[in-house]
Amino acid sequence: MARIAGVDLPRNKTVEYGLTAIYGVGLFTSRKICAQLGIDLKKKCDDLTEEEQGKIRHVLEDEYSVEGQLRAETTLNIKRLQDIGCYRGTRHMKHLPARGQRTRTNARTRKGPKKTVANKKK
After folding, report:
1. Residues 54, 60 contacting (CB under 8 angstroms)
2. pLDDT per residue over 73-96, tens digit each?
3. Which parts of the chain are coiled coil (predicted)?
């Protein structure tokens, strides 16, 4: 089993899609890495040699911030926005969409499940 950047790559997927299991690596980056190293995109993750795995690890460490490093960077950016008290920071604090989406309807991903409010008794 291939283990890169602390993530076990799925055995049955191709390298092209398997690398996307790593946080911070999308399909474009995955294809770019494979082209740079000359790895066949249709090769299964299980069939990667130790040498190829080492090359992929090396490229990810040197050229990209992935997994823990990227998560920490993102968290620090959001924390900075909250500390300076800007609009986006306050939206993050209130768990509401930060990029101008409507909230009267929808926005369930950010707001969570509905919280029903009871009617007043007469």
Report:
1. no
2. 999 999 999 999 999 999 999 999
3. none
